Amino acid sequence: MSSLPMLMRSWWILALRGAIAVLFGLFALATPGVTLLSLIAVFAVYALLAGAVAIAGALRNRRGAADWWLLLLMGLVSVGAGVLAARHPALTVLALLIVIGVNAIVTGVLDLALAVRLRKVIGGEWLLILSAATAIVFGLLILAYPGAGALVLVWLIGAYALLTGLLYLALAYRAYSFAAPRPAAQGGAAPEAAPKAERRVAERRMKPAAC
């Protein structure tokens, strides 16, 4: 079974990741005066929650899903980044920004791998590709300009989280809509109704006529 059926069955993984990212992005954009170190502490919570959701979804769908390990790896990377930021607050802001940048790049690459498997089923791979591209570009910017002003970095982190969160929510809705059971067309018999009706007609024809 491919990774897409896993994502369709567990559309809530995408929805939760999106909601967590949107909340984190709104917090960053709504409080531009927050210190960068405080924002990184909030990032630790965000990374831990998003990683835990991904790991739970991967383990829940590991049977029969060939690519469940991609989601598991994504969750482990996110949890690792969150643990590093939470357990080592004495690290310099520069080191923590590097952790955020590397986490974004790895997540983006794994999202691209999932998008490759997504394209043949529901055609919504562009949402995941756009999210992956956003993550990779954000990670490269953080690594290239870690010494940028605190306000610029806060806005950059907030915009990245908000955009990727919205893309994940859109993809979750698409996966849910595609996976939802479709009612039978009006005027048509249910899949099993037609064979049963045909059997009844054949039985009537085989019965001898009453004298």
Automatic annotation (TrEMBL):
List the Pfam families.
DUF308 (PF03729)
Q: Where is the composition biased (Basic and acidic residues)?
A: 195-211
Arranged from A to Z, the UniProt key words for this protein are: Membrane, Transmembrane, Transmembrane helix
The ranges of region (Disordered) come to 184-211
Q: Where are the transmembrane segments?
A: 12-30, 36-56, 68-86, 92-114, 126-146, 152-173
| Low complexity composition bias: residue spans | 184-194
What name appears for this protein in its UniProt entry? HdeD family acid-resistance protein
Organism annotation: Janthinobacterium fluminis
